[in-house]
């Protein structure tokens, strides 16, 4: 294949697929359980060792079917949180974040796993969404384009949060490359078969791409629409009690393009985005 310019990137020998970071987002929980069974069977049958680490991120929250036990685990991976003083009285998720950082990281080090895919669900009718901290991570962008091609019947969006590595707070930031794969709509504490199947397919296609990449395949560059945060938009509130006084209009509630509205009133602001054109103009290959 003739290419104008070739970017050579290191192989991705170690990949982590994580589910249950939020214990009530069950597609990832059940997919991780299934993948762990497959992994165990492969070891028992002495097949070729796979470079995929399967992780149930928050076992206690998963057991209780709650988002978290003490505090949101997916906000516990900043540099300050991972490297500050710790004691036995700290919240469970703070302690667990240290354990995951030791398992998958340390964050920002050469020893960190090469790619982290963290699985999430949302109640929003958003289809499949990649969430990352970089709009120029060619690995994540090419994986996203591959999934767009392989799963054309599912709406897909790529969301970029402009946060530094030290301030990045989610589990996927521990790896050299990482993204959250969030799929909806699915109520918390429930598994919908179509959402589970979409997530399973997304993970499989992601791993297929990694295997191709590691084999030395060349990937043509192109364009990806990347959404980024413009501003926070809160609900109307009572001036005295500050209670929310409005809801999403029924004509907007189930529209796929309204995918990133308020998902959790206590922790997540509603967002709007502008579309950026990100050019993956360098063909990638492994070295």
TrEMBL record:
Entry annotation: catalytic residues: 182
Residue stretches spanning the membrane: none
One Pfam assignment: AstE_AspA_cat
Keywords, sorted A to Z: Cytoplasm, Hydrolase, Metal-binding, Zinc
InterPro entries, A to Z: AspA/AstE_fam, Aspartoacylase, AstE_AspA_cat
Amino-acid positions noted as binding Zn(2+) in the UniProt annotation, renumbered to this chain: 22, 25, 120
Protein name: N-acyl-aromatic-L-amino acid amidohydrolase (carboxylate-forming) B-like
């Amino acid at each position: 294949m003739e290419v104008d310019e070739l970017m050579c990137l290191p192989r991705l020998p170690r990949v982590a697929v994580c589910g249950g970071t939020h214990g009530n987002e069950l597609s990832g929980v059940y997919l991780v359980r299934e993948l762990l069974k497959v992994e165990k069977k492969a070891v028992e049958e002495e097949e070729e060792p796979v470079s995929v680490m399967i992780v149930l991120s928050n076992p206690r929250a998963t057991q209780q079917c709650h988002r978290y036990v003490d505090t949101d685990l997916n906000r516990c991976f900043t540099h300050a949180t991972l490297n500050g003083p710790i004691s036995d009285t700290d919240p469970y998720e703070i302690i667990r974040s240290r354990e995951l950082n030791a398992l998958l990281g340390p964050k920002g080090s050469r020893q960190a796993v090469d790619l982290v895919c963290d699985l999430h669900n949302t109640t929003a009718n958003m289809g499949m969404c990649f969430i990352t901290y970089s709009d120029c991570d060619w690995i994540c962008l090419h994986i996203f384009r591959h999934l767009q091609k392989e799963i054309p019947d599912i709406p897909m969006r790529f969301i970029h949060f402009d946060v530094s590595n030290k301030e990045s707070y989610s589990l996927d930031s521990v790896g050299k490359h990482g993204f959250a794969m969030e799929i909806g709509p699915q109520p918390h504490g429930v598994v919908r078969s179509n959402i589970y199947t979409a997530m399973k397919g997304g993970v499989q296609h992601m791993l297929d791409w990694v295997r191709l990449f590691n084999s030395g395949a060349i990937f043509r560059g192109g364009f990806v629409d990347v959404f980024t945060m413009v501003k926070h938009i809160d609900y109307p509130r009572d001036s005295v009690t500050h209670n929310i006084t409005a809801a999403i209009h029924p004509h907007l509630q189930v529209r796929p393009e309204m995918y990133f509205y308020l998902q959790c009133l206590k922790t997540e602001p509603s967002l709007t985005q502008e579309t950026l054109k990100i050019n993956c103009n360098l063909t990638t290959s492994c070295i």
